[in-house]
Every structure is written in structure tokens, then in C-alpha cells.
Amino acid sequence: MKIIDGKKISNDVLDEIKIVVDERIKNRKKVPHLAAVLVGDDGPSETYVKSKIRACERVGFNSSLFKFDMDISQDELLKEIIKINENQDIDGFIVQLPLPSNIEQEKILTQISPNKDVDGFHPYNYGKMTLGIDTFLPATPAGIVELIKRYKIELSGKKCLVIGRSQIVGLPISILLGQNKSYANATVTVAHSQTKHLDLLCASSNIIISAIGIPNFLKSSMVSDKTVIIDVGISRIEDSTSPRGYKIVGDVDIEDFRDRDIMITPVPGGVGPMTIAMLLQNTLKACQLND
Q1: Rounded distance between C-alpha atoms, residue 199 and residue 220, angstroms
Q2: β-pairing verdict for 62-68 and 187-191
Q3: CA distance 188 to 171
Q4: Per-residue pLDDT, 240
Q5: How far apart are CA 93 and CA 35, in angstroms?
Q6: Of the four listed, 83, 128, 188, 250, which is most buried by Cβ atoms within 10 Å?
Q7: Could you give all domains of the chain from N- to C-terminal order, each with its CATH number?
Q8: Integer Cα distance of 96 and 281 in angstroms
Q9: Euclidean distance between CA atoms 184 and 175, whole angstroms
Q10: Catalytic residues, which ones?
Q11: What pLDDT digit, counting tens, does each position of 25-62 carry?
């Protein structure tokens, strides 16, 4: 088993971003500014936002956190989004998901200015991605693509199975890897909860991207040798040996693959750090577009 080290590659990307930021400061250009909108007190969301802020500090970005109570109305939140759109000092911002049940996610995400949509979820940017036009790519799929590029994983003509069809990961990565690009050109199949004979699809695939959020779902018996496995899933499971009472695992039962001839991303330390790195890459791009 060979580990695809997302933590190392994300550090490489952040180091490269910092070089560009230092040069911008030297030339008295604007410092990139990333903002995050957080509604409520969801623990994992707060942890994730804090990790983004730390990453901003590392590369020299400015960052802001707009935190609102759980009972904020949809109209009030929309007004706050408009204010951030109009704030010329902020280059890009994200709305941390999930949002409270009384708020329609799509209405909020479509209110974000496409020029500041560094999460890549606005229909304008999503459409450009689908057409293969340069734009802000959704951060997690962009991180997967970056891992594929930097590990020189050959996909042209290969069978790629994407397990999960979410608009955040499954659908966009299936689009990106099926495009006529140097890093892609795969033959992509998208599987989901209604897919029959998933085990046969796994066994016949050269690369598997799992994004279903079922802990330890993918077993060694389902996969052929030489397969590349990208584990996007992240789940908490009880662990009495941990001080926190739980541990973080992915969709892949990685211990089951120890003696197998495969490449695999670990959880944690795989796709997660890449998501943050590509979010900052998008923010730098947004800032550069305003030069």
C-alpha cells in the first residue's frame, strides 16, 4: 500500500501561495482576504473554519469571520451576504455548511457574487466548470485533481468510479475527470445508493473516489490490485481509547488494505488538507483577478 500524502502536498501548495503573497507585499499589492460566514454553534463547522483561518495566517492572507446566531432569519442572512459582496477589501468568502433548517441553502449560495465565490458553488462558476472554462473549482474536487497531478496518476482511458453524487464532491469530480484534459480523460461511472452490483463496479475500476460518508464501507475484497483510492469520506466513530471518545475515519477500511498493491489517501491527512489549500488558491486567484 502506498499512501497519497495530502498533508504534504497541501503544505507544498501553501508554501507556493506564501511565496506569491510575499512578492505581492514586496510590490505593495493588495494582500488576499478570505472571509467565512458561520451560522450557529456546530462543532465540526467551527473546527473547520478555525483551520481555514490558521491556513490564512500561515500564507499571509487577511481573514475575517462573520458569525451569526442560529436563529438568524434567511432574509437577515441574505442582507449580510450582500454586505460582504460589496466589501471591496474581501476577495473571496465561503458560507460554511450545513446551514440551519430554516434557511434555504441554494438561495444563500446563489446570492454570493460569482467573483467572490471561492467555494465554486455558484451556478455561474459551476456552469463554467462543466464547460471546461477556467473558473473557481469546488475546493474538494480541485484538491483531488491536484493530488492526481502531483502524483502523476495516469487517468487517460482508465475506468474511474465515483461513489456518491453530491453537488459538492461527487458530481463535480465526475465532470472534471471525464473532461478532455491532460490530467483526466477517464471513463467515469457515478454510483449512488440505488446502484446495483457496486462490488463488481469497484473490482473493475482503476480509480475509486468514495464520497458517501459511510465509515469503513470500502473493503479490500471489493478492490483489485493497482487501484488508486481517493477517500473523501469523514465520519466520527466511538473510540474508548481516545481522550475525545471518538476517532475520525473515512469511507475506506484502510487497515484492511495494508498488504495490498494500491495507492490510497488516508483519513485524516488526505483530501481534507487539500480542500483548504485549494480554497486559499481560489482566494489568491480572486485577488489577482482584481489587480
Answers
A1: 11
A2: unpaired
A3: 11
A4: 84
A5: 4
A6: 250
A7: 28-113 (3.40.50.10860), 139-271 (3.40.50.720)
A8: 18
A9: 10
A10: 52, 96, 119
A11: 999 999 999 999 999 988 778 888 999 999 999 999 99
